[in-house]
Amino acid sequence: VEDEVKRTLVQFLAQLSGNDGQQNFTLVWKQDSDPCKDHWQGVYCDAQNMAIKRVLLDRFNLSGTLNVAMLCNLQPLAASLTFLSLDGNKIGGGIGTEIGNCKQLTRLHLGGNQLSGGIPDSLAMLNNLKRLDISSNEFLGPLPDLSRISGLNMFLAQNNHLSGSIPAFDFSNFDQFNVSFNNFSGLIPDVHGYFFADSFLGNPELCGDPLPKKCSGMSKLLGQAQASSEESKGPSKDQILMYSGYAALGVIIVLFVVLKLCRRKKRDHKIEALNRIEVTDHGGADKTSNFSSEHKAEVSRSEFSVTSESGMVSQSLIVLSRAAANELKLEDLLKAPAELIGRGKNGSLYKVMLDNGMMVVVKRIKDWTISSHDFKQRMQILSQAKHPHVLSPLAFYCSKQEKLLVYEYQQNGSLFKLLHGTQKTFDWTRRLGIAAIIAEALTFMHQELGQHGIVHGNLKSSNILLNKKMEPCVSEYGVLGVDDQQTSPFTTPIGAGALDVLKEDVYGFGVILLELLTGKLVKSEGIDLTDWVQSVVREEWTGEVFDKSLISEYASEERMVNLLQVAIRCVNRSPQARPTMNQVSLMINTIKDDEEKSLISEV
Ligand SMILES: Nc1ncnc2c1ncn2[C@@H]1O[C@H](COP(=O)(O)OP(=O)(O)OP(=O)(O)O)[C@@H](O)[C@H]1O
Predict the structure, then answer these.
(1) Ligand 1 within 6 A of CB of 267
(2) Which ipTM value was assigned to this complex?
């Protein structure tokens, strides 16, 4: 790597780190070493170790200033950099217009910082950009016409002070979109049913589908009127008149919403009454907790009911994935035959057959003290992070006493069953492939949700389900709150005060790796798998650790030992010493690449 590039990177990091001296990364990024060959932390290069591809410095407690010009004005760097990620720091400053020179960028993640100022027009010139996250900062002013970037498939800008109208995006391209809690105004461009109200909430002057607030002819013009008033010095007489009109209109809208709410309240009381009837049908069980207390082998009529928040307006089911659960209604769930299939420490799990033949599972979470508002917000954030190997909730229900989550039923069981059930063939290549997929999925979720403090919190092989294609899917992501995670069994005494919750998932994943390698249960006859593996390795009997069936299929011991080393690093008692999920994923992919190369050379 050229000296100029090294020097620029070191200076860029020094500015990002700020002057508090706490995080002096220049110690790690040394100019007399090579960013690629010497593996500078957070820097990833091309296969030839010649060019910088990615700079990923999420959650490094950086509190300095972003100097985009430094990176993007240096031709060799601008020509190779595809991914810049600085999520979850305390970085200030703004996005300089020079960002337009970093033309190769496909991902720009700046969420959860203290960045401010306007969004430069040059951002809309990044034609390769696919994922843009500027959420949870202090950005203000209008957006440039980002709809010109045809390949953009993620745009997160929630929790800023952005204003003006929303560009005319083609929403069918997006898997994530959120502009909630800003000051956007005017008509929402047609979302064609791809996104719901939660992507637009918290913008008082925004109207039209999917928000409940309808646009009048006047409010359609509001965005334009506001833009022109921003340009002029002060409101003219005409404008004052017009705004008074808006104010009157606002009052009418508020009255309309209040009327609607009153009607809904009446309707919800009816639903509640229906549920109560169901309760009496089943022998008058406790009204707030009517899930069956015994496991029923036979499919029975639904045993659960939902009550309203201490007489307040009862919520209905909030559907998060319209594609999979378009017509799903709370009444349907309550009426459908249900079977208790699990009673874990988080609550009970029911398998429910809907009228239309669709099979879902309903997780009823117990003892989660999270407020309804926080729960809803959490669900909305969760529903934005979509990964093909993470099972997203289809819908949820929330009242003070009840929290229900609805997932698609996965008929092929769990990794736990695959490992410890009766099936015999579960070969090494498949185990390694499953480990790589889960690691990649968790890396994605940590990158997307870590800044919100949302982690899995309860990783174990029974929460890894096998989908129709027998590929692994992480289920129940984010179902446990952070507070609960602090008291999870994975919490270790070392450094518990400053516990990094992301590292709890790394621990859970390490245990799954140990299960894959040993084929043993996590706890058996009082013996803890992690302790057992560590003691056997200490005694230098590493070969004894591995599943006998792997030994008999002549799986590569070298690669099994490599994976074991990854697992042991993940279950380190000190959370700080554990690698990040991203590092774990890279290590497993290297082992997988070796495995694939050896299979090819054998052929
Ligand atoms: N969407 C789903 N489809 C099919 N099976 C599922 C689904 N979700 C969970 N399961 C299976 O149902 C069983 C019970 O799940 P549950 O989540 O209640 O138990 P758990 O994972 O042991 O406990 P907990 O997650 O509460 O600690 C597990 O075997 C799990 O693999």
Answers:
(1) no
(2) 0.97
Are 347 and 361 in contact by the 8 Å Cβ rule? The answer is no
Q: What is the DSSP letter of 23?
A: T
Q: Tokens 């010139």 — which residue?
A: 125
Distance between CA 564 and CA 525 in Å, rounded? 23
Cα(419) to centroid(ligand 1), Å: 15
Question: What pLDDT was estimated at residue 481?
Answer: 52
Pairwise CA distance, residues 195 & 176, whole Å: 8
**Residue 40 and residue 507: Cα distance in Å, rounded?**
24
Distance in Å, CA 462 to ligand 1 centroid? 6
Cβ atoms of residues 119 and 96 within 8 Å: no
List the structure tokens of 444: 């994605």
Per-residue model confidence (pLDDT) at position 498: 34
Alpha helix segments (H runs only) across 190-234: 217-231
Q: Hey, which bits of 448-541 come out as E strands? A: 464-466, 472-474, 523-524, 527-528
Question: Which residue's alpha carbon is at the smallest distance from atom 1 of ligand 1?
Answer: 409
State residue 218 phi and psi, 5-degree precision.
-70, -45
Mean pLDDT of the chain: 79
Cβ of 158 less than 6 Å from ligand 1:
no
Tell me the angle at which helices 501-518 and 428-449 cross, rounded to the nearest 10 degrees. 170
Å from CA of 461 to ligand 1 middle: 10
Q: Is 335 annotated as a binding residue?
A: no
Q: Atom 9 of ligand 1 has which residue's CA nearest to it?
A: 463
- Kindly report the pTM of this predicted structure: 0.54
| Ligand 1: nearest atom to the Cα of 343 | 18
Contacts 24+ apart (CB under 8 A), 344-352: 346/458, 346/476, 346/479, 346/480, 348/291, 350/291, 350/303, 350/304, 351/409, 352/302
Q: Is 458 in the pocket of ligand 1 (CB under 6 A)?
A: yes
Ligand 1 atom 22 nearest Cα: 344
Closest-lying ligand 1 atom to the alpha carbon of residue 347: 26
What are the residues facing 523 on neighbouring strands? Answer: 528
pLDDT in tens, 230-265: 333 344 444 455 556 666 677 777 777 777 776 665
- ∠ CA 265-267-273, rounded to 5°: 105
Instruction: Establish whether residue 461 lines the binding site of ligand 1, counting it when its CB lies within 6 angstroms of any ligand atom.
Output: no
For residue 413, how far is its CA from the centre of ligand 1 (angstroms)?
Answer: 9
Cβ(72)–Cβ(98) under 8 Å?
yes
| Whether the CB of 414 sits within 6 Å of ligand 1 | yes
CA of 342 to the centre of ligand 1 (A): 6
For the stretch 344-385, pLDDT in tens is 777 888 898 887 788 899 998 877 778 888 888 888 888 888
